[in-house]
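Quarterly update from the structural biology core.
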Amino acid sequence: MATDPFGELFVAASDRPEPYDWQRRLALREEPARVIAAPTGAGKTEAVLLDWLWRRLFHPDEAERRRTPRRLLIALPMRVLVEQTLGRVRDALGRLNATGRLPHAVKVYPLMGGMADDSWTLEPEREAVLVGTIDMLLSRALNRGFGRSRAAWPIDFGLVNSDCEWVFDEVQLMDAAVATSCQLHAFRERFDVAAPARTVWMSATLEPSWLETVDHRSPDRCEIVGVEDADRNGPLGQRLDAPKELVRAPVDPADAKAVAQLVVEEHERLAEVSDAPRLTLALANTVDRAAALYRALERTLGDRGAEIDLLLLHSRFRPADRERLVGRLGTDPPEQGRIVVSTQVVEAGIDLDAGALVTELAPWPSLVQRAGRLNRTGNRRTSPARFLWLDPGESLPEKLVRPYEEGQLRVARQALLELDGGSFSPDAIAAFTAQKGPSSLLGARPLSLFLRAPDLLDLFDTDPTLDGDDPDVGRFIRLGEDLDAGVAWRDFTGDPNDSEQALPAREEVCPVPIWEKKTLAALTPWRWSYARRQWEQIRFADDLVPGDLLLLPVSAGGYDAELGWTGRKQNRPEPVPAAMPTAPDSDSEDPETLAGRWISLEEHTSHVLEELERILAGLDLDPGWAGALRLAARVHDAGKAHPEFQRRLAIWADEHPSDGVVYGKAPEQKAWRPQRAFRHELVSALLLLERGARSRALDLPAYLVAAHHGKFRLTPRVLPDDHDPTRLVCLGVAEGDEFPGVTVANEAFAAGSIDLSLLRMGDLGETTWIERALDLLDDLGPFRLAYLEALLRAADQRASAREKQEVSP
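Predicted structure, tokenized:
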């Protein structure tokens, strides 16, 4: 009997008896696909997960396993889609782990605003699946990771651009991110990566020409995988021809009362159909209209509302409230059914199987996605499910156009009028699209800024500018009006600054679109300044920018647990009790230096070397790069022998052993925050270069040493506290400082004076630090150089974490 290894893997990971034909073709084709174009409900998430897992861990050809990236990144446009995809990926991997099908556990990490698990960066040698929003993932690929400290940006940048397979799911909802994803893929090919990298674009409504940019070609037909006749004739066929009737409803979408009446009538019709799910969806294009419809439905239902589960779902909820609402979707509805009022968040990814659907007019791709939530399984066969679209008329009032473009809505309206009264099944939609031509219905890719190679190279430098203003990468991810700020509520009056108070946790934060900045500013929020480590009050709307973390007193209002973000002062939420780490460390702090016990420099260095060897054993790294990493690991903390660093350890520990040992870490007996920075890694890098007569062969290990905390990479910085009219000071290290000498990991450094001449700029008759760093960037490219940074930093952080765990009680 012929064996079917992929089919067996798929069955073990899913609750289906076999994969669909297109899922099997995706995994067994010789070359990986670049585009997956399959209808909603066709199992795209499982397909892309198991295609990657099959190629990476189970493919019979070792060469294919080696060229398949070890990390899978699934990027989605909305956090509600992330939450559902996370669940499906965890379920599949959980089944495989439980049955022993995997050679080792494959972990899953969420990356979305307020819930980002970045611990995956500590295991660069292991397979992992990252599921996140395009904001969180693409910002990391652009070296400006949202929600991450500046020092951590290069780690993410190095690891998400090498040894990763990117999957952009629901591309039709991504606007600017589509072009950026294409440009990044092109730049990975141009500048080279340290390990294989791939990109896959996935959607039920994707026009291949969207993927053509100035540096990236559109996919060939042979690189696209989708459903074929074998799928229509197999188990998937029931979903593809699911009966759905398209019905025009001449009701003003802005008239919440009239829409509510229509929704209730449709819901009551479901009671007359024996095989109809008792679920009705009502979809609005804006949160405001969805909330208004929800309130109108409460009034229309009156006493009947107690028998029907009515809920509102959109993206502007605090996590616990949103998860509670999404959780209700997974439960059986009461006898009288459930009515869900929502926005675009249900267009994709959420597995709803409604018996009736009422929707506002939207662009064609959005309508197709919404139809995928109606009679999704195709089980309703006795009478068609009804897809009712609210026709605003030929005039299309401006208030009903936002957040879309008028031209998109007119194209969609004309198509709906032509199909009115007919079938709106996936097969019917596909036939109509083929007849009209995909480009005429799907339209062109949204206009956006293009990421160009000079932009990428500029973003490699993470050192702060003189004015503290960093390049805004949000413009490369979403069209500006759609980026969010995070808002938390606490019970306080006056100034919220309190050294004992932690920053808001993910449970406290509600995403609010930045285009509502006038409403936000009217509530006079406080914004967290990572530079000044304090809350600062905002009084002007234009002071708010995407990514801001804002704090409001409960008395300011603006939020309701059932309605989400409202901006209304009368809606006062209950504060969410939570604990959260403090703000990212500054130049003057070294939190990993405080280990709970005295640890010698030699001991810590040996731990780092051990962790580095574990990492290298799992990678296929260039021997020259591995040698540079090993040298950098041996000397990375040699600068801690500097008297200033040893003095700081003594202050933290409130003592210093008199045994003559050079220590790298100390117990924290005194809460002390240094007033000025002292970057020991700068001393370490200079020691290595001076010992080697400033040989250019040492440029790479010296750079890795300098960059191992992310505080000193390309540009020597003079901090405000570095001012000294008598000598040069950089990052707390002064020209002429006496270094006592040290030997660590058999690397000896003689006593002498610190020489900062390499940090000067201009024609000094030799190659300066910044010239050396830029030469490395030119030789290795941004992706490979950052990847090597990330490996050393992972080894160092793993060693530090291990040392803290080993502390005796």
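The chain has 26 helices and 29 strands.
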